[in-house]
Every structure is written in C-alpha cells, then in structure tokens.
Prior knowledge:
Elements: E1 2-5, H1 11-24, H2 32-35, H3 40-55, E2 59-65, E3 71-79, E4 88-95, H4 100-116, E5 121-127, H5 131-139, E6 143-154, E7 157-167
Amino acid sequence: xxxxxxxxxxxxxxxxxxxxxxxxxxxxxxxxxxxxxxxxxxxxxxxxxxxxxxxxxxxxxxxxxxxxxxxxxxxxxxxxxxxxxxxxxxxxxxxxxxxxxxxxxxxxxxxxxxxxxxxxxxxxxxxxxxxxxxxxxxxxxxxxxxxxxxxxxxxxxxxxxxxxxxxx
Length: 168
C-alpha cells in the first residue's frame, strides 16, 4: 500500500475506484446512475482542478494505492474560502469496503498537512450509517458536534447527518 498525492495520470484509476466504491458501499449517497455518467476525461478535469487549487493551498488531496496500482481510497482537506474562515477546513475521504486502515493513514496524513498549512479547525460530517468513516474519525479524536436528523432521504428512509470537529 502506498499513500501519495493524486496525479493527472490517475484519471482512469480514479474512475475505476469511484465506480467500485458506489457499487460496493451501499451506505454512500451517490447513485450508480449518476456515477455511470462520469467519464475518464471528466475525472482528468476533476484532478486538474484539484491540482490547480492545491498549488494555491486551497485543497490537499491524497490517494491510497494498493500493491496492484489500484486506487482504494481517496481523501482531501478543503479550506473554507472566506478570509475569516481560512483557518477552517473540511476533511473528507472515501474508502473501499475492507480498506479502512489505509483510509485512517490518509486521514492522519491530511491532518498533518492541514496543520502545516495553517488550518486550525477540521470539520467532518457524514451519514450516521457510515460506520467506517465515523469510527476512523473517533479513533483520530474528532469530537462530536451534533446531529441533524433526517438530513438525507434514500427512498422512504431518512438518515441523520453527524458532525465532528478536531482542533489542531
């Protein structure tokens, strides 16, 4: 396993990862029909935009790559845009089922990167049913800030959104 920055040449790997993630992780809010519309060219543009914003210290992106070269996790820290909130960022990640340890390592690296770039407050939010992500953030000592009930609606089912924070 390797953790590294995302590269322009990762568009096909990233597309394969996103498709597999949505197919295998039934707790995601992404819909397969929406993911089916994403192209390799679209992923390339997504990566290019992230790399451009990373040069400006607005976002930091890492991916986890397995021994076969496939992306199995992706994470990012995105700084809030307003001048008075530049010390605050959202941390988020996706990980294929069964690959939680690499996601935790990515989150740990992103926390270090955030701190080294003047970010003082990290916010994480997710579906209450996303056990892997919430467990990782709890292990990394994120604090619970609350829950918004019925935030997501999937069919007739409502799912709460949980908010966590870490002060660096």
